Amino acid sequence: MSEFALRGAIYSPIADPFFEPTETCAVFESDGLIWIRAGRIHALGDYRAVKDLLPDEVEIRHYRDSILLPGFVDAHIHYPQVEIIGSYGTQLLEWLNKYTFPAEAKFNDPAHATRIAEFFIAELQRNGTTAASVFCTSAPGSVDAIFEAAQRDNMLLLAGVMMMDSHAPANILDTAQASYNDSKALIERWHKRGRCLYTVTPRFALTSSPEQLELAGALMREHADVRLQSHISENRAEVARAAELYPERANYTDIYDHYGLLDQRAIYGHAIHLSESELRRFHETGANMAHCPTSNFFIGSGLFDIAKTRDAARPVTVGLGTDVGGGTSFSMLQTMSEAYKMAQLLGISVTAAQCYYLATLGSAQALGIDDRVGKLQPGYAADIAVMDPRATPLLSLRANVAESIDELLFALMICVDDRAIQATYVAGELAHVRDG
Ligand code: GUN
Ligand code: ZN
User: Fold this and answer.
1) Confidence (pTM)
2) Is the CB of 310 under 6 A from ligand 1?
């Protein structure tokens, strides 16, 4: 494997700026060097200091005026929904029936799955995203397709077959037992193969029978280190329907809790309309959430209260997700911008440090992969997004008057432009180059 170094400004979150002072939560080098060996970061720091250690023959790629960031980590995204991104005029339950379920049925054809999976992996890279937790469909071939595409580029990907045995069209339904068997076979085939990690994926309580949720719990008990992803409390009609389907449970969170699906390995998308006792239960169990603001605005689901969720008295770990195709962009910068605006509507101004943290280390923590990605540190994967703060005339004009790295990063995230992602490295290989 190759050995080389990247020169540029370095910015990396290293701690949680919701709880620690901003200054101590990120490292910044205005002229830095990252020495990469065999796909990992070997050393990094001030250019001169690291240059002294670097053997003369090691190539230095100089990204003059650019910022080297940890690759973004998308905590919640649906690859089968790429084609229906930006579908007009509905809220969650109608949106699922009208657009999503027909789009997902197309993945019963493996050739379609392969074509969209390859597009999807390339699109992540075009946006500087180097790891993601991905929903597939109930067709096991949809999981093979996405893991095969990810593995080709050595991407860290979490995914699993969608478990859904009720209240949806027959051509995308499984049965409780079939979903258990499929999940088990896919865990054996894919979990920890390369950088692939398996994620048990019951879609949500509305499309799973009690028997299926029971078997999802069994999968989690039988496989100590697989993850779990699902949805919770995104839309008020959804919450009411969950109560009708599971009348014996105290609330929506209690449904998942009852079946053993609420622990540190689990991440739930949306989590907007939760009561205080439900938030407390997330905190107690260590279960995580994926905040998906572009989706919540677009489908009209509601406002996720980041301050309440992260309340220091009982904080819940939160990552940031695009939720494409309910979400409207692959760009984690765009998603950060919308997270900022959503908080503004609730009277809270989240900081640039908090937004970059959520999109990198925060998502990595929520997915249980922060021991290998989410920050730039020796031993971590060389998953790196190169951001060009002067990618357009407008960005350049704005960058000229920025007085600090935080001000610059904030303006870049608000005035988001996909030209700002100049290059993306995945496991130490150049995976995407803007001008290439
Ligand atoms: N809840 C259950 N399934 C889905 C989905 O595919 N997208 C969104 N946004 N919410 C869901
Ligand atoms: Zn989703």
Assistant:
1) 0.99
2) no
Please report, for the domain that includes residue 141, its CATH number: 3.20.20.140
**For a substitution probing ligand 1, which of 93, 104, 234 has the most ligand atoms within 8 Å of its CB?**
234
What percent of the chain is modeled with pLDDT above 90?
99
* Average pLDDT score over residue span 268-281: 98
Q: Are residues 50 and 133 in the same domain?
A: no
Ion ligand 2 residues within 5 Å by Cβ: 269, 323
Distance 184 CA to ligand 1 centre (A): 23
Tell me which residue of 371, 374, 362 sits closest to 288, measured CA to CA. Answer: 362
Q: Is the CB of 76 under 6 A from ligand 1?
A: no
Q: Pull the structure tokens for residue 241.
A: 């329907």
CB crowding 182-219: b at 16 or more within 10 Å, else e? bbbebbeebbeebbbbbbbbbbbbbbbbbebbbbbbbb
Compute the distance between CA of residue 215 and CA of residue 262 in angstroms, rounded to an integer: 14
C-alpha to C-alpha distance for 81 and 102, rounded to whole angstroms: 10
Q: Ligand 1, from 76, 78, 230, 335: best to mutate by most atoms within 8 Å of Cβ?
A: 78
Strands (E), 136-277: 156-160, 162-163, 196-202, 227-232, 266-270
CB distance 204 to ligand 1 below 6 Å: yes
> At what angle are helices 210-222 and 176-190 packed, to 10 degrees?
20
| pLDDT per residue as tens digits for the range 289-335 | 999 999 999 999 999 999 999 999 999 999 999 999 999 999 999 99
- Tell the residue nearest (CA) to atom 3 of ligand 1: 203
Q: What is the pLDDT of residue 2?
A: 87
7, containing H or E segment: strand 3-13
Three-state secondary structure call for residue 44: strand
Domain that holds residue 46: 3-70+375-433
Examine the domain organization and report whether 262 and 351 are in the same domain: yes
For residues 43 and 145, membership in a common domain is answered with: no
Indicate if ligand 1 lies below 6 Å from the C-beta of 78: yes
For residue 362, list its beta bridge partners. none
